[in-house]
Amino acid sequence: MNLDEIRELVMLLEKSTLTELAVECDDLKLTLRKASPQEYSSKMEPIVTPGQRVIQADIPAVIPETGLVSINSPMVGTFYQAPSPDSEPYVKVGDVISKGQTLCIVEAMKLMNDIKSEYDGTVMEIAAENGQAVEYNQALFWIKES
What we know:
Layout: H1 3-15, E1 20-25, E2 28-35, H2 37-40, E3 53-60, E4 68-72, E5 77-80, E6 96-97, E7 102-108, E8 111-116, E9 121-126, E10 133-134, E11 139-145
Parallel strand pairs: 2-3
Antiparallel strand pairs: 1-2, 4-11, 5-7, 5-10, 6-9, 7-8, 9-11
């Protein structure tokens, strides 16, 4: 199983109503789980059995009490809030956004990747720092859907 296949599984889980997906093949055991609101703030520890490699990823889910959804980084890279250092940010906290609107850029291997909103709503939090490294599936924005 390669990284692209794992990313595809993560995206399928994110868009489904499933809360957990486990896949086993050869010496790889992959468990993907959407975090519940209680688990979201705590780290999950993988369970390793002898002879198996374990990859576990927690995907932020909608937090029902607040109605917030996250926009996550689709890749490892550098987070930029604006198209250039002297430009205004694409969005600020409190901005009303629409599906497909560019929210930021994640630079990966000298390529600038526009990150677009998957939702209509209001930006409630910008969870990444401008110019800082972000991880795959790290929350970049918290959005209150409208």
